[in-house]
Predict the 3D structure of the following.
Amino acid sequence: MGAGGTEGGFGQFVLGFILFIAGIYLFLSELQVYVPFFGGRGGHLYSVGGVNINTGYVLIPMLIGIGIMFYDASKNIGWFLFFGSLIALIFGVIANTQVNFSNLSAFDLIVIFFLLAGGLGLLLSAMRDSKAS
């Protein structure tokens, strides 16, 4: 048996895996991630009706919810405040995250996509049962 318990070739699987991992590595090494939320004096998560809602407005209900949970864990309002604030905080960070490519030439980008697509194709082809039609 080959890769994945099928008749596919193990060598083809390993080559596809190496190409795919190399493509992912090159792709991720060229990304620049910037989160203005964590820079300097904080930032605003949302804007509701022209009013910026910053991190303090989200953390206050979270702290109140944590206090209620420590006082009486059976009160649902404490859990609601905590998890609602946590979801709002996570969503605000994700919404404000900016992802950019560093200076890439077209050739570099084509090589990265070739490695990703070619490696994935070899991986999937090695795991496919060659006897099934």
User: Anything to note?
Assistant: Residues 1-30+102-133 form one domain. The chain has a mean pLDDT of 81. The first strand starts at residue 31 and ends at 34. The radius of gyration is 24 Å.
